[in-house]
Amino acid sequence: MLLPWQHTIFQQLQQCRRENRLPHAILLSGPAGIGKQALAEAFALSLLCESPHTDGTACGACHACAMFHAGSHPDLHRIGPEDTSKNIRIDQIRALIETLSLRSHYGRHKVVILNPADAMNTAAANSLLKTLEEPPPDTILLLLSARPSRLPATIRSRCQTLHMATPHPEEAASWLKSQLEAGQETETLLALAGGAPLTALQLAEDERLASRKQMLSDWLQLANGEGDPVRLASNWVKPDAALPITWIYGWLTDMIRLRASQTTRLNNPDAKATLQKLAEELDLQRIYGMLDRVQDAMRLLDSQVNPQMILEGILLYWRNLPRTAKNN
Amino acid sequence: MKLIISRETLLKPLQIASSVVERRQTLPVLSNVLLKANNQHLTLIGTDLEVEIVTQIPLEESVEGEITLPARKFLDICRALPDNANLNIETDGEKAMIRSGRSRFSLATLPASEFPNIEPMTSPYEFSISQKVLKSLIDQTQFSMAQQDVRYYLNGLMLELSPNELCAVATDGHRLALCKAEADLQIDETRQFIVPRKGVTELVRLLEESDTPARIQVGENHIRVDLPDISFTSKLIDGKFPDYNQVIPANPTKIVSCDREALYQAFARASVLSNEKYRGMRLELSPNQLKATVHNPEQEEAEEELEVQYSGEEFEIGFNVSYFIDALAAIKADQVQVNFTDANQSCLIHGLGDDSCKYVIMPMRL
Prior knowledge:
The structure holds 2 protein chains of 2 kinds. Chain A contains 16 helices and 5 strands. Chain A is an alpha/beta fold. Chain A has 2 domains: 4-163, P-loop containing nucleotide triphosphate hydrolases (Rossmann fold, 3-Layer(aba) Sandwich), CATH 3.40.50; 207-319, Zinc Finger, Delta Prime, domain 3, CATH 1.20.272. In chain A, helix 5 links the parallel strand 3 (110-114) and strand 4. The model of chain A has no long low-confidence stretch (mean pLDDT 88). By secondary structure, chain B is of the alpha+beta class. Chain B contains 6 helices and 25 strands. The interface between A and B is medium-sized, with 23 and 28 residues.
């Protein structure tokens, strides 16, 4: 369960545990797709296991381990958005506080994994403060977030932050290789995923990579004044509007990088020539302007705004950018 | 696992064990009941993680094993079978086969290793007390427990063990109920633990009005009550109960005594017209007379006068009438004594000449 690049940080936690100075609330932060959940689960299991190995890892054979893997361990509480909701609601936190007020089932730790912690709405976050500050004895709260800045300062200040960095590219690549069938382009996948191995793995396993090729060519056509942004937006919005926006974000940042240097590391190494050409047609300031729009769009996606309209806005803006190539 | 059992012997223990299983569960295994068979016994275990009930049935012939079955469906099948049916239960791969006469059921199972049953306690403190006494202790105090209070240690019943006494205390911050019973506990120092609300209400349902003893074990994390054929376990609340002795008025000066039933009836009538939310009631005391007045936002009023034994000065005090009614209903004596200090301090109610049960109520400003 523990991923190869997490051993150091895992042992750090075990060291704290042996020295009996484990914080009661840990905020695990770091980019999406680097395995925060995997680390949290591995650590939770090591706290709950009846006979852990000397290095702290779980034995995998005891009753606690069996229940953990079946998802029925009574001292592990996983909190996340329920059903179709994007948020963690106050009722979930209240129920959690009530269960935490009871003694642990097996006399070891009580562990809470809140993932993603930034999905708590304001009311839920506020209701957690008292418990987060002073949880009952032997309770450990693990808050996971890829965007810790979205958490209220009152939550952040009550946790010890443990930042997880993107793994070293070589380490990530060798792990990814072991997970994939031979012949897949691990480097490209990793670059597309911004270095996050789990995201890269996901990319390889579904059809999103194929759809990206189609989107890039549609996007190029738009730049040439061809194609209908509204129709494109309605195609792209399914199944997940966040995806095309992340791609566009990656293309734009690469365009900016290419304007600065030819040898820089890119998110889209496979599309270097195309992006280079696009970048030369545009004023650098305008690319930055477009990037701002995309960042706004990413924020808006979490709100109630209709995702298709967000996409339409971006695509129209992109089509209407003044280009030197067109003027000549 | 394989066993044969008659419907009659299975039905009641199964009902009891599955009574704590909740219909809507986040963890699938919690909607199941655990069956363990050995040579002599079939053990049934149901849990909702807070409370666990274990029942045992003697078996004549069986093949050892353990498995979990969907509690609700298993119970419904047993209930619907004819009166003197015999059930033949057998595991078959991932399914459990139940055969009875010409009926056959194949139920989905989950492995017993996934079931979060509570382990036997390590070196618990043990004692015995008659079921009747324990039941009355709980009945006379449990209504004062807090409900979903942020002070989570109030959401339960505190039991205090001292060398020759068992004491139950419940409070929600506005009122307090305390009840003591003599018991030979063989203990050197006092010990306190808090049983959560859910555990208290489930336990009181299982206790009977009989002198048969309940064997109680208290560990670090759980309390277990062993009754004949049933073993009940509840988690404990992880917290410290406030010092309740400070709340009990030490030197009340204004002592009123009267017939309990008459006072109860008078307050019950008056409460009809009290404010639904605040339930305020004004009490006016003058020598040998008590007058209770209530009114509500619709300007309706009720007034009750009652003859009492009282010889102090006249004064006025306000209370939540529901708290008074709850306390008066719980007291068993025919005559009650109500002790006041002044209009700003709590009053203490107990049976006349019997202070094994005490009720403290905070006044209201009206």
